[in-house]
């Protein structure tokens, strides 16, 4: 009964050395932050995917580009792809109104301006979607080593404590080693979800990125045909 109490989870943490406790606390805080970003990113990507599908349906259904542009400008809750379209269409309209003639050089300048505006909007959207991914990657790669450091330190203290013991038994060694191994367990608990989430989110964002870039090229071709 006494051994069971000594090896309880809370007891092992409370009896660990100060440094190991600090490492455990750090890993718990990092894990909580990681889960917060995981849920935020999960909902953000799901929303971006839904909004992208909705706008693509509206765009390719043959609607008037001016109406789509006005709707995007008046709607405060636009999706990423709709904001890219709004940036390109707005620059195209400004360029068309600014040029005095209709020479080929003027047309190329207007189309280049629209494409640059869409690329700039695309980069802003990608920066927003990729936010906190670097944190998840760092947690996934570093947390096991931080936990392992706590484990090594705890095991060192456990063996140092045996220096004054004349006869070392499993009962005397087990609590110290168990205390140390908890740090590694917490490190893995923080790292595994972060790695899985990072890989999944990176895949989903790459797919959205391809859809955005494809739309930019297709919309640029549409504007080019309209400029002739």
UniProtKB/TrEMBL annotation:
The Tol-Pal system is composed of five core proteins: the inner membrane proteins TolA, TolQ and TolR, the periplasmic protein TolB and the outer membrane protein Pal. They form a network linking the inner and outer membranes and the peptidoglycan layer. One of its GO terms (cellular component) is plasma membrane. It is found in: Cell inner membrane; Cell membrane. Belongs to the ExbB/TolQ family. This is Tol-Pal system protein TolQ. InterPro entries: ExbB/TolQ_transport (IPR050790), MotA_ExbB_proton_chnl (IPR002898), Tol-Pal_TolQ (IPR014163). Part of the Tol-Pal system, which plays a role in outer membrane invagination during cell division and is important for maintaining outer membrane integrity. Residues 83-213 form the MotA/TolQ/ExbB proton channel domain. The chain crosses the membrane at residues 12-39, 133-156, 176-198. It comes from the Bacteria. Keywords: Cell cycle, Cell division, Cell inner membrane, Cell membrane, Membrane, Transmembrane, Transmembrane helix. GO terms for biological process: bacteriocin transport; cell division; protein import. It is a multi-pass membrane protein.
């Amino acid at each position: 009964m006494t051994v069971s109490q000594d090896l309880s989870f809370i007891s092992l943490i409370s009896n660990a050395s100060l440094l190991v406790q600090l490492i455990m606390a750090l890993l718990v805080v990092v894990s909580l932050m990681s889960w917060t970003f995981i849920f935020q990113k999960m909902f953000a990507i799901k929303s971006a995917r839904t909004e992208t599908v909705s706008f693509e349906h509206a765009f390719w259904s043959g609607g008037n580009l001016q109406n789509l542009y006005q709707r995007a400008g008046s709607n405060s809750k636009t999706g990423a792809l709709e904001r890219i379209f709004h940036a390109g269409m707005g620059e195209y309209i400004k360029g068309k109104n600014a040029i005095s003639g209709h020479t080929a050089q003027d047309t190329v300048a207007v189309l280049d301006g629209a494409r640059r505006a869409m690329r700039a909007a695309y980069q802003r959207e990608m920066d927003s979607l990729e936010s906190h991914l670097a944190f998840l990657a760092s947690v996934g790669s570093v947390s096991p080593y931080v936990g392992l450091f706590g484990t090594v330190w705890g095991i060192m203290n456990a063996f140092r404590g045996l220096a004054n013991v004349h006869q070392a038994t499993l009962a005397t060694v087990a609590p110290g080693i168990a205390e140390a191994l908890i740090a590694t367990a917490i490190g893995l608990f923080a790292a595994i979800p972060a790695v899985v989430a990072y890989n999944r989110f990176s895949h989903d964002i790459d797919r959205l990125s391809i859809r955005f870039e494809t739309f930019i090229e297709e919309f640029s071709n549409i504007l080019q045909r309209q400029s002739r």
